[in-house]
Design brief:
Layout lengths: L1 H20 L13 H12 L2 H18 L6 H14 L11 H25 L11 H22 L2 H4 L7
Length: 168
């Protein structure tokens, strides 16, 4: 599990720098896809909920220190997303387009729900999605479109992102 978590963290660092340096500067993108979340979902689904929540926590904590969000917000949302995605480890056949897109959709909805619940407890310090706002729907669309590419990219390196043996 340590090898998978290490390489996931390295990949997440690369994805976050890519999002911050390149995707955030593209004027035609109103929202950015959450590549970090998609990587966590892939690793969780291919391994287990323990691996997913651990990789999600470490990656989220890294994101918390790189962003202006309250410390712990990304760690919590990525941990929950990794845990839930890991509960489905090995339950479905991971095809090329449909299932990664559905996982991207479900993970984005889960992230929005967890963020909304946290905003109830912590108030305006946590920015949540508005159901009627376009940002949530555009991010869902962006994640649906990007999920198959991210899953295919990470699938090229099974020795780095898939633990040997059966899921826990």
């Amino acid at each position: 599990m340590g090898r998978v978590v290490f390489w996931t963290t390295v990949t997440v660092l690369f994805f976050s720098l890519f999002e911050a340096a390149i995707l955030s500067n593209l004027a035609f993108l109103p929202v950015m896809p959450d590549l970090v979340m998609l990587a966590i979902v892939y690793v969780s689904f291919m391994n287990s909920s323990t691996t997913g929540s651990t990789a999600g926590f470490i990656s989220g904590l890294l994101l918390d220190f790189l962003s202006a969000s309250p410390v712990g917000l990304n760690a919590f949302t990525k941990s929950v997303t990794g845990y839930v995605a890991g509960k489905f480890a090995g339950a479905f056949n991971l095809d090329r387009i449909l299932f990664p897109s559905l996982m991207g959709l479900a993970a984005t909805v889960l992230k929005a729900l967890v963020t909304w619940i946290l905003s109830i407890f912590f108030g305006p310090a946590i920015l949540s999605y508005r159901l009627a706002g376009s940002a949530l729907w555009l991010e869902i669309l962006a994640n649906i479109v990007c999920a198959p590419a991210i899953f295919a990219l990470l699938g090229l390196f099974p020795s780095l992102f898939v633990r040997r043996g059966s899921p826990e």
